[in-house]
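Appendix B, record 7
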Amino acid sequence: MMRIDNVGVVFNPGTPDENRALKDVSLDVRKGDFITVIGSNGAGKTTLYNIIAGTYAPTSGRILVRDIDVTKTPEFKRARYIGRIFQNPLLGTAGRMSLEDNMVICHKKGYKGLKISLNSKLRAYFRERLRELDMGLENRLADNVDQFSGGQRQALTLLMAVLSEPDILLLDEHTAALDPRNAEIVMKLTRSFADRYGLTVMMITHNMNHAIEYGNRLLMMDSGEIVLDIGAEEKSLLTIDGVVQRFRDLKKRELANDQMLLHV
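Structure tokens (predicted):
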């Protein structure tokens, strides 16, 4: 599905502020992988996502999606096949537009620019899909999205991303801004959609329990490198203490991230 080949990112090269944000990172992502990504602040997680999404180009190396080199493909073109959901639940939807108009936007992606007119058949389809959220939104198609709660908007963003049928879905701490109840709802929807539609997912999280519980692979990043890549069989036996000990043994220092360790 995707191959990252010796990708490096250097900010402010040749200056006193030079920062090697990624250091020759290589990664193979298989179709159907659900990869959780953990690491301290500044480990390179968001930089890795920005490189995959095309927010900026790497300093070195290349990125291939379905064996096509997309290293120099701009972000707006990659958005057709790489979905991304951010921490802020307001970013994934157009608040001043109606729910049905938001749904049309994601639905249009498969129609290659053809104009779609709302009709009873399409509205019925939207209602059917919105029922999957179990939030009653199927009865609110005419309401503007800014009337919805943060949890409802993030669940809607997730559904819209799924409907756009991305090759890869990047989840960037997508439940971190939600209260515990809504965070749990969105996480359950994430797992349900990933399983039901065979999605290929990468999920950054600071919640160590989620990192271990969800998905079939776990990556840990540190100082711009992938230091652990744990597959499904080994991951099923992991504990939080075990992950921390693996890091300690590998790097000969403590995992300096209070936010992650709070979830122990």
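Remarks on this record: The first strand starts at residue 2 and ends at 11. The chain has one domain: 2-261.
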